[in-house]
Amino acid sequence: MKVMDAQEIMDMIPNRYPICYIDYVDELVPGEEITATKNVTINESFFRGHFPNNPVMPGVLIIETLAQAASILILKSPEFENKTAYLGAIHQAKFRKVVRPGDVLKLHIVMEKKKSNMGIVKAAALVDGKKACTAELMFAVYDRDEKI
């Protein structure tokens, strides 16, 4: 059962094609944790150049996908509703498995800390239950119209 579909996600975060990577949210406990899904397809634009004849999802885009799922979690926290979350730091990122077309990325994010306009999460991207990437991500949260 989907908790949020693609349109609901785009209503919440500013990312759009070709860089909106979350297909749907599976589970959500606002302010605590989220599980979301990214279906990796051969039609992704980045596979044309990364790498021809050996398509691999770039690690930086796996981090971006985790960051989008984390921003949904953060923005579903009551104190951060109707705001925008910006990635502020990436700590302890580890890439453990190559992600290829046909893989389904399950993104699991757990809120570690929240204060004033910041959040820190533990993030994991899994393929077939195996960790593809883990990281700690820090966010700064601002009003949607505020220029930073």
From TrEMBL:
Main location: cytoplasm
One BP annotation, GO: fatty acid biosynthetic process
Record-level Gene Ontology MF annotations: (3R)-hydroxyacyl-[acyl-carrier-protein] dehydratase activity
Subcellular location: Cytoplasm
Keywords, comma-separated and alphabetical: Cytoplasm, Lipid A biosynthesis, Lipid biosynthesis, Lipid metabolism, Lyase
Active site annotation, chain numbering: H50
Function: Involved in unsaturated fatty acids biosynthesis. Catalyzes the dehydration of short chain beta-hydroxyacyl-ACPs and long chain saturated and unsaturated beta-hydroxyacyl-ACPs.
Protein name listed in UniProt: 3-hydroxyacyl-[acyl-carrier-protein] dehydratase FabZ
